[in-house]
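Service request form, structural biology core

Requester: graduate student, group of Dr. S.
Request type: structure prediction, single chain
Budget code: on file
Notes: please return the result as C-alpha cells.

Sequence provided:
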Amino acid sequence: MHQPVELAKYGSRRFRRACRQLGVFQSMGRDGSCFDNAFREAFNSVLKVEYIHRHAFATRTEARIRIATWITDLSNSRRLHSVCGYKSPINYEHSYQAILTEELAA
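Core staff response, request fulfilled:
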C-alpha cells in the first residue's frame, strides 16, 4: 500500500527515534480520521484569529513570549470552553481535582 509522503516521512524510524529522544509524543491516527488533531486545529485557529493576526511582533522571541502569555493568561484561565462545561480549563481542572479528592477521602 502506498503511503502519503507526510505519513512516510513522519512515521519513519529515524523521525520516531528523534521524537522519543526529545520526549515528544506523536499523534498520528488512522488515515482519513478527521478527529485525530481536531482539538489542536481548533485551538490553533482560535489562536491565529483572536491573537496572532491582531498583533505585530518585532522578533520571534517576542512572539513566543507574548503568545505563551496569551495562552496561560487568557485561554487557560479566563476563556470559557464548551468542552469544559463552559468553565476555563484551570477552573475545570480544579473542580475535577476537588471531586477526585472527595472520592478518595470517602
